[in-house]
Amino acid sequence: MANSENNRKLFEIASQQGGYFTAKQAFEAGYSYRLHYYHRHQGNWRDVDRGVFRLVDFPNSPHEDLIRWSLWSRNRQDVPQAVASHETALSIHEISDVMPGKIHITVPPKFRKQSSGCIIYKAIIKPDEIEKREGFFVTTPFRTIIDVAEGTLSLEQVEKAIRDAFNKGLVRLEDFTKARMSHEAKQKIRIALENIKKNPIF
Description:
Blueprint: H1 4-15, E1 20-22, H2 23-28, H3 33-41, E2 45-49, E3 52-55, H4 64-72, E4 83-84, H5 86-93, E5 103-107, E6 118-122, E7 130-133, E8 136-139, H6 141-150, H7 155-167, H8 173-178, H9 183-198
Parallel strand pairs: 5-6
Antiparallel strand pairs: 1-3, 2-3, 4-5, 7-8
Helix pairs in contact: 5-6, 6-7, 6-9, 7-9
């Protein structure tokens, strides 16, 4: 049976991921694959996805869905590849009032997994465009605004996102003047900024 030190190691890992952990993480914490079977059938661990478990008695997390998708996206080295982005990131940062019906994530261009349970974008995201949260990653407010401006989000919602981000001190005007983006995104953001200057009430 796993000893108290193994229990502590696994709990430390799971507590940073909303109670979730992978089979590899459990193994590295000292749990043999025989113990995996034991704890699953004793009801201590709940099967969530292939190679992903959750401590049954761990308190609920407000972002459990994002943690699950992050673990789902892990590569062969057990490193999560997904970053919450676009409309989902707007919601996390609480900029705009967009309420996406599905989780939006961005993964590396060579990512191969497919799922109809979320909306997947493929792109390279720089390390300084990512924020770490408890159990998942999310694009920064600035990268998020660029992403949604590149997409189909309405001008009104893009403007609301920029207003909210300014109001929270999350972005600066000069960030937008220096950023590289598509012509469509540049036009949408330019109009939004002009509207904000004309009516700077947040």
